[in-house]
Amino acid sequence: MTLDPRPADRPRRQHIDIFGLSHPGKVRAANQDSFLVASLHKAIQFHQTNLPGEFLPPAISDTRGFIFLVADGVGGGPSGERASGTALREIASYLTHAMDLYTHVEPELEAAFLAELKRSVEVSHEVLRAEGERDEDQRGMATTLTMVTILWPRAYLIQVGDSRCYMLRDGELRLLTKDQTMAQAMVDAGVLTPEDAERSRLKNVLYSAVGGRSAAPAVSVVEDLQWSDIMLICTDGLNKHVSDDEIREQLVAQQSSEQTCQTLLQLTLDRGASDNVTIVVARLKRS
């Protein structure tokens, strides 16, 4: 798909195709992943989530942006599920008020806007830490978090942990995030090769998690979104079974975001789905 509108053109609601899904997989008894898709109006409006249905208010006004998030609870039992759900609720609550300040982001406002996004993650981290201190059963609960906020023509990305964000542009798949794991840190330090890291027991050991001992949000900006770009965020339940080349293949071939999510999920299930898997795909389409 190639669209070439004038640079001043801004996508309208009818151009947006975003779909998310979450599945417990074939091994885990519970789904500790959570996801959320919302649009930005004069107030935030929620469209899709696997959290209990306290969101999803009626439409308000024309869309001026989108936000989508995935979170993967750390550890076994109900605390992981609670951690991911609580983190997204706290971020949603914070951003419901903060986003009222931004009908669009001028260059001089961008630093303040990014600070608000980062602060929403810090607030969720503080809430999870406080809950763990109050309730011994919840102590140590934590979650990954990957959040993309789109205010055309920019995408703002915040990541904690190892849930990933990809972007397909001109047929090339780019990984926009870096896993915050001990194995990746050792690769960065030159101690392990990427191949050794894939086999390392430290591959799934996080050094940064919302609610964990340390949360270090990584912030980045895609400044020049194009109409042909496709973005995908996912928990590591997808990456454990589906390669980057296969993700690229499905994004190139896709007819809709829902179809791509369903196809990637089925690939994961066919290969054993040893973990929960959550996928959100966002693209632009012709009206």
For the record, what CATH class applies? Alpha Beta
- What is the element string, with H for helices and E for strands? EEEEHHEEEEEHHEEHHHE
Distance between the termini: 13 Å
Q: What form results from the Cα inertia axes?
A: globular
Query: Structural class, please?
Result: alpha+beta
Largest sheet: 7 strands, antiparallel
Q: In total, how many beta strands? A: 12
How does the SSE layout of this entry go?
Elements: E1 16-23, E2 33-40, E3 44-49, E4 65-74, H1 78-98, H2 110-134, E5 142-143, E6 145-151, E7 154-160, E8 164-169, E9 172-175, H3 182-188, H4 194-199, E10 218-222, E11 230-234, H5 236-239, H6 244-253, H7 257-270, E12 277-284
Antiparallel strand pairs: 1-12, 2-3, 2-4, 4-5, 4-6, 6-7, 7-10, 8-9, 8-11, 11-12
Helix pairs in contact: 1-2
Give a written overview of the molecule.
This protein has 287 residues and is of the alpha+beta class. Helix 1 packs antiparallel against helix 2 (110-134). The strands form 2 sheets. Strands 2, 3, 4, 5, 6, 7 and 10 form a 7-stranded antiparallel beta sheet that branches. Strands 1-12-11-8-9 form a 5-stranded antiparallel beta sheet. It has one domain (13-180, 209-284): Phosphatase 2c, domain 1 (4-Layer Sandwich). The protein is built from 7 helices and 12 strands. The protein has helices at residues 78-98, 110-134, 182-188, 194-199, 236-239, 244-253, 257-270, and strands at residues 16-23, 33-40, 44-49, 65-74, 142-143, 145-151, 154-160, 164-169, 172-175, 218-222, 230-234, 277-284.
